[in-house]
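Hello Y.,

Per our agreement to keep a running log of every chain we model this quarter, I'm adding this entry. I've kept the format consistent with earlier entries: sequence first, then predicted structure.
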Amino acid sequence: MAILSSRLPSPASALCATLLMAFGCVGAASAQQPESTQTKADEEISFSADSLEYEFATDSVKAIGNVIARREGYTLRADSIVWDRRTGKVVASGNIRSVGPEGDVAYGDSIEVTESLRDGIIENMLLVLNDGSRLAANKGTRADGKVTLEGAAYTPCAVEGPDGCPKDPSWQVKAVKVVYDPVKKRVKYEGARIELFGLPVIPLPGLSHPAETAAGSGFLVPNLRFSRNNGVEIEQGYYWRLSENRDLLLSAHVFSDVAPMAQARFRALEDKGAFQITGYATYSQKVSTSTTGAVGQNVFRGYLDGAGKFQFNENWSASASMRLATDRTFLRRYDISRDDRLRNNINVERIDANSYFSFNGWGVQTLRTGDNQALQPIALPEIDYRLRLTDPLLGGKVQLQANSLLIGRTAGQDTRRAFALGRWDLRTLTGLGQEVNFTVLGRGDVYHSDENLTTITPIYRGESGWQGRAIAAAAVDMRWPFVGEAFGGTQILTPRVQLVGAYTSSNLRMPNEDARAVDLEDSNLFALNRFPGYDRIEDNLRVTYGLDWSVKGKQTSFDFNIGQSYRLSNQASLFPDGTGITDKLSDIVGRSEFRFRDFVKLTHRFRLDKDNFAIRRNEVDATVGSRSTYVQVGYLRLNRDIGPTLEDLADREEVRLAGRLRLARYWSLFGSTIIDLTDKNEDPLAISDGFEAIRHRLGLAYDDDCLSIAVTWRRDYQPTGDARRGNTFLFRLEFKNLGV
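Predicted structure for the entry above:
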């Protein structure tokens, strides 16, 4: 390839001078040229070709073979380029590739451009944008940096299959005219329509969208839904990109059977953190959840959801979340959420290598039918500080903790609590390979409560006024692992024994706010205190024993543990009947897990009655299959015979099923169901007859690299207020790089 320059032989000097006037040859600045005729560096064209021809008769220059011309960020490659000096037109032909400053590449059969290489006309044009999407047209014109296409089609989809063979895109936009602005990164259409799998389905007048992965302002593709509560629903959103770090989504939900609803979502990403706020608002009919057959009134209804977190430096951070609804059925009525409690939280934390400080606050809004909002707790503040030190004498770890909590209710029991704790832990290894852990703990508590009689469950109330408590505990925990070969892999058999002695000056005089849902299971069998929370402390002297067994193979693994505890003291237990640790000898608890590669995972948790080996807890979770085709099964039965007086420990039985079946490369069938199997024997207050469907879901989906389609049917069987039972149909259609 010959690179044109000012160092051409004498016979070619006239030709170079001509090219200098038009293109600006590489290294063309010459001391012999007057300064007024010198071409500025940023206006020069770097030009190369295998050969050059100059026609004196037509005053034209022709470059032939591997021609490359560059100017101000524009690059033009072709088999040949002809420059007509009289008209100023540059015509390229053969294997044309034109690259703009933004990285967009245009291909065509022939191209006619101006001397600056910026403006021109391309026949049979293909424009490959910087994000990989494509614009094809019969004819393309570039003027002032903008590209206008006639008879064009746009798609971000791959046009080649995994085997490298050409394939039709799953969707594309065809239009009479398309304008692409590389500066604004925006594509605008005239007479546009979307074609799905080659069929025109959706006209889109006034369509525009960003031509890059970053979002841009514009209308979103509408969502379609049908439910018995609201009829046909059309959701139309507008996405507004306020700045590089802030955006706003405004949506209108229009229903055939009820009043429309507005939705707004604001998001921001700041230097120290991020937050978002979402709100819903409507004026519609509200039906009381406590009155059967009531006729509702039209009132304002809405929901507010916000969350954010900020990291001020490496130690200090703050977070907050807020969820508020105007009534108990709004979220279910409009299928926003199925939560029955909304939690609000504020948190400030400081964390370093050896200390922790937090300031927390919680508030709960109940959406459960029959719950009294006035009895819901407001915890503000909870202050917790922990300091970890190294024991200079024995080498263990010392933890100091101080905690205070205030719980208030607008029409219920108020509780204040403060305690200070010191804990020492030491882990050692014996010469025989035994792992021994020593723990010593001391704690002092102060409580104050009033209006205790408003708490329905007597054992949770405690005594009114000021109460104090002293706690001391010590434990020795020993594990002895044995390692060997088994079943073509490695097995580890680990017997474990723990001895715990604990003393507390009083327990039942203290209110119980955070230690209610107690149950013996594998996760807390060896815990120092098997009550959750701080308000109840397990005392007495006990020994706990168990066995862990694991087998690890090349593709499989199996883990199993089982254990039981025995109380050495004759002192009465604090645990309610049916929790598995009421008597001196506890129930037997365990857990097993089997894995086969990433294809099978089976987990089983159980609790067996110590007297007759009746199953008090039976929980199974199983997943079988790959990511595209799988089955999930969940089963839970709690048969503890605790009775209806402790609402936190009610028995229940349910089964959960879910699965996905891959029908073809991109098509799949999915579904799920939840069935309540609780009967009167398990829970006398249960409304189920032993087989009560809660919710079913079934759908068909298509997903590839640039298109997602799903049709879902869901049926709800439990009405709540104006959220009636019935069917909901949802149609979801998502296009990559379109509508935002």
